[in-house]
Fold these 3 entries.
Entry 1:
Amino acid sequence: MMRRLALALPLLLLSAPLGAQVAPLGAQVAPAASVSGGLAPVNPALLAKARPVAAIILPDGTMERMMGPMMQKIMGPMMDSITEMPVRELLKAGGMDAVEADKLNPATINEIMAIMDPNFRKRMDIMTNSMMPAIGQFMGRFEPDMREGMAEAFASRYDAAELDQINAFMKTPAGAKFGSGFMELATDPHYIGKVQTMIPAMMQAMPEIMKKSMAQMEALPKPRTYNDLTPAERKRLEALIGADAKKVAQ
């Protein structure tokens, strides 16, 4: 249990800051990757007006700055906040029965890992400090696509007059400062601090959130096992995965 918790913790730490940064991009990037087939064509004239706005908001190097030095400065305090939470709260969020979890003592991750792995914090620091720059470099490769997606989103939401007004604002000193720093607001310590205070409440709410989902899923037929498949389905499954279907399904 503790090994799984130790491995999952960095992902939990990353989920809040990543969600804060990637969520605004989700609507911009998704059309090119997943829902482009269902979108109406973008007006080329509006797209031409929208591209300069996107270029100001997402200049080259933004993602690498956000996910590198900026994020590394706030990961430490966020780590401190989460590792001081009682383990039982994290276990409840992970699906453990609340009654059973509450029987556990309110030991924190820090207290337990001080015994299990004295180098736990160093491991987490290495993982997060190496992951964030790497993620930034990876995402930086897709900035041109992100900018184009952002421009398409603007072109689909605003008319020509509105885009002219936005462009005019972006050409002012205040507009240029606002636009070029807009994406990086997601890594501002003031904003992240508010997100950080939400995490304990989110952990407490997760069992109830999961309960509602589980209740709906219980109404669905259970997934089939390999033994439930017909010979034709087993053969098709084996052809799809290129391996012994029985071994993979177990």
Entry 2:
Amino acid sequence: MNSLEVFNQALFLMINATASTPVWQIDVARLIADYLIYLVPLSLVAIWLSGDERQRGTAVRACCVTLLALGINQIIGLVWQHPRPSMIGLGHTFLPHATDSSFPSDHGTVFASVALTLLSDGLRRYGLLTLLSGIAVAWARVFVGVHFPFDMAGAVAVACVAFLFIMPVWQLGGTVVMRWVLMLYRRLLAWPIDRGWLPS
């Protein structure tokens, strides 16, 4: 076992809850680990509904960065299987999870991808909300034993790679993408848009 993996496991054991951890702390961590991610789509929908054309473009670009990053995660998982803590009998697990590769964390990747995109485009309120929520989720998923700390660091790295790839591609084709997205939005939701319930 190399020194990085030793450090990764040692750091995990420092954060991971134990059998003596109060039940309420574990329950709170489980809620954060499982449900806080729903803030991401809610935030993107809020940006779309309340934002101008540029902000809508940022929301769509955040989705593109996230989808690419999650695709990279899948490739990494196929090429290199990194076991979860429970798969090697390390620490304590308080949240059921499939026995798939732990690295990188998909939850961490979603938060990092969206936060990076929003903050880079000046949407500080939503970006900071996503960033702080992502930090909470990263801690919680290690705390309940389904991820190692380096899984979260890997998620941030993958998000950065996806962001750097999407940015020049978006400059070339972002206008076309937004035209199609707007057309689809206005067709699918024409009824509430025509009645003024949703912005056009």
Entry 3:
Amino acid sequence: MHPLPLPLPTISPLLPWLDMAGLAVFAASGALQAARARQTIITFCFFACATGTGGGTTRDLLIGAPVFWLHDPVPIAICLGVAALVFLTPRRWWPERALDWFDAIGLAAYAVYGAGKALGYGIPFLPAMVMGVVSATMGGIIRDMVAGVPSIILRPELYVTAAALASGLFVTLTVAGLPAPLPAMIAALAGFSLRAAAIARGLALPAYRE
């Protein structure tokens, strides 16, 4: 039996804001994937919703929480609104790497939020870190699978590592007793900075060698 979850603002007042930010930018990255493929508004909406909610849905199912978008219309409304916005703007307005940058913002925000929600449901600190990574990466993985493009996690540049840094740092600083909202701010900035450096400079972990 799960303990009653702690209100997220009790863990960090930034968590609800990171949730909305992560949701919106992940939805934008999904819509931009549809734009690259020159799809219809229906596909834009599907990609935006799948990318925006995919990681959080997986996290909630694993930690035994009610799936967030089934009990609140706001997340789906945000995804649909972002999809419509991207669909109604000319493709030339979006830089070629806009998808990567939106994804980087969502990655950092959702890694922290996912870890925080897991802590609120009484998940121990190490699995809570993993739940942050799941929250941050599953939406992008689902987006790439549906789009039929190579998954982001199979590209050499740092991706999951940046999510792990943000999630792990947030949990560590929170458990260590650093007052909120500092853990969330520091962790999200660190995760985004590492992912941004990977995008800009192609930073990558060493690959396996035979």
